[in-house]
Amino acid sequence: MVVIGASIQSILAEEFARQPTDPRQRVLETVEELAMDFGLDAIELYLDGLFLFPDVVDEGLLADIGRLQQRLGLTLTAHLPYVWVDISAGNELTRRASVEAIVRAIQACAPLDITSFVLHATGPFGNEFSPGVSDPEQSLFLRLTLAAIDRSFADLTHAVPDAPLAVETMDGFPFAWQTPLVERYDLGICCDVSHLLVRGEDPIAFLDAWLPRIRQLHLHGVREQVLGVNLRRRIDHRALGGPGELVDVPRLLNHLTTRGFTGPVILENLSRADLVQSVATIEEALGQ
C-alpha cells in the first residue's frame, strides 16, 4: 500500500518566515500535527535547516524527532541540503564543500530511521544551462557537470555507504543524462512526478522504467500558465487538484497500487493552505 506523507516545509516554510517565538517547539509540533491532524503516515525533513538555522535544528532536535517517530510510528524521509549546495559544481572547492555538507547532514540523522535521503545531483546552474544544450556530446558545461557528479557520487558512497540515497528527477536537468552514474553507483531515485510533467515527460512511463530503484515520490500541483499568444509554461509546487491540474492523481495512485509500490509519496507543498487542498485531493482519489 502506498504511504502518503508531506514535507515538513508544507507548514514550516511560512512559519519560519514569521520567526516563531519557540522555533524548536514548532518543529516538533508540526511533526505531530502532520501525523495526527492531517492523518499522514510519512514526513520529509528539511536538512538545510542544520546549516541555515543551526541554533534550531541540531542533533538534540533530531533526537526529539526520533522519539516522536517511534511514538507515532512514522515513516521519515529527509531532503538533503540543496540551498547554496551543488555537488555538480565544476569548481572543486564548491563541490567538496557541498559533499561535506551532505555527509554531515546524513550523519546527524543517526538517531532517526530514514527511509530515503533525497539528493539533488545538480544545482541551479545545471538547470540553467541544460535547456540550451542541443548536442550533449559537444557541451563543455555538461561534461564538467557529469564529471563532478561522478566524483561526488564516489565520495558519498565511500563516506556514507549505507545511506539510502535517492537522486531526484529535476525540472531542468534531464534525468537521462545522469542515469549511467545512478546505475554505476547503484543509487535509488526520488521520482518527482510534477517535475517530470513540467518537462513534458510521462511520469507513468518513468515509473515503469525505474520502479525497482524508486525509493519515494514527490508530488505537487502543476498548472499551465499563459504568457502570451501560443506561449505557455508549466508551473509546479502548487496545491494538488482543482481546475487546470495536470497531475492525474487517481491514475497515478492506481498505477502505484497495481505495481505494488509501497514507498512514501511525499506532498511537496509550501503553504498550509496548499497542503490542505492536496490532502483532500489525495483522499478523494483514494475514496476516503
Describe this structure in words.
Helix content is 45%, strand content 19%. The mean pLDDT is 95. It is an alpha/beta fold. It has helices at residues 9-17, 23-36, 49-52, 59-72, 92-108, 124-129, 140-159, 179-184, 193-198, 203-210, 249-258, 272-286, and strands at 3-7, 42-46, 75-79, 114-119, 165-168, 188-192, 214-219, 221-228, 231-238, 264-267. The strands form 2 sheets. The chain has an 8-stranded parallel barrel with strand order 1-2-3-4-5-6-7-10, surrounded by 4 helices. Strands 8-9 form a two-stranded antiparallel sheet. The chain contains 12 helices and 10 strands. It has one domain (3-286): Alpha-Beta Barrel (TIM Barrel), CATH 3.20.20.
CATH homology group: Divalent-metal-dependent TIM barrel enzymes
- Beta percentage is 15-25%
Q: Helix share of residues? A: 40-55%
First-to-last CA distance: 14 Å
- Major sheet size, sense and barrel closure: 8 strands, parallel, barrel
Structural class: alpha/beta
**Rg from alpha-carbon coordinates:** 19 Å
pLDDT average, as an integer? 95
Total of domains: 1
Q: Element order, helices and strands? A: EHHEHHEHEHHEHEHHEEEHEH
GO molecular function: isomerase activity
InterPro entries: IolE/XylAMocC-like (IPR050312), Xyl_isomerase-like_sf (IPR036237), Xyl_isomerase-like_TIM-brl (IPR013022)
Domain Xylose isomerase-like TIM barrel: 34-270
Keywords: Isomerase
Q: What's the layout of helices and strands?
A:
Elements (H helix, E strand, L loop, with lengths): L2 E5 L1 H9 L5 H14 L5 E5 L2 H4 L6 H14 L2 E5 L12 H17 L5 E6 L4 H6 L10 H20 L5 E4 L10 H6 L3 E5 H6 L4 H8 L3 E6 L1 E8 L2 E8 L10 H10 L5 E4 L4 H15 L2
Helix pairs in contact: 2-4, 5-7
